[in-house]
Amino acid sequence: MHERLIDANALQNKICAACAERIACIDIGNICFEVACIVNAPTIEPEVRHGQWMFHEQKNGYLWKCTECKGNFEQCFSFCPHCGAKMTGG
Q1: Which of 27, 34, 38, 64 is most buried, judged by most C-beta within 10 A?
Q2: What are the extents of the domains in the chain?
Q3: Can you tell me the distance from the alpha carbon of 26 to that of 24, in angstroms, rounded to the nearest whole number?
Q4: What would the mean pLDDT of 8-36 be, rounded to a whole number?
Q5: How far, in whole angstroms, is CA 66 from its chain's centroid?
Q6: pLDDT, average across residues 34-44
Q7: CB-count burial class (<10 Å; 0-12, 13-18, 19+) for 67
C-alpha cells in the first residue's frame, strides 16, 4: 500500500468542529483521543519524483508526455497532474 498524504491540520479542525465538547477541550487544554492520534501520528518525508515534459505530435494535435508516468496532457504544468512528479525541464 502506498502512503496517502493528508492535511493533518485540516483533519484535526474538522474533528474539533464536529465535536460537541470542543469548547471544553480548548478551555482546559486537553485534546480528545481522536485529535491525540492525529497529533502523535508518525510523519513522512514524501519522495519527490522528478520528470520532464516531452513534446509529441499526434494525429489529432500535440501532447505533452510525462517521462515518469507516461501520462499525456494538452498543456504542461510545473508538476504532473497524474503522478505528481516535479518537472525540471523538457
Answers
A1: 64
A2: 8-39, 50-87
A3: 5
A4: 73
A5: 18
A6: 82
A7: middle
The CA distance from 51 to 41, in Å, is: 31
**Spatial distance between the Cα atoms of 85 and 70, rounded to a whole number of angstroms:** 11
Read off the C-alpha cell for 9: 491540520
pLDDT of res. 51 = 94
Beta bridge partners of 64: 55, 73
- What pTM value is reported for the model? 0.49
CA distance 84 to 90: 16
Backbone angles phi, psi at 15, to 5 degrees: -65, -45
To 5 degrees, how large is the angle CA 1–CA 51–CA 71? 70
Amino acid at position 81, single letter = P
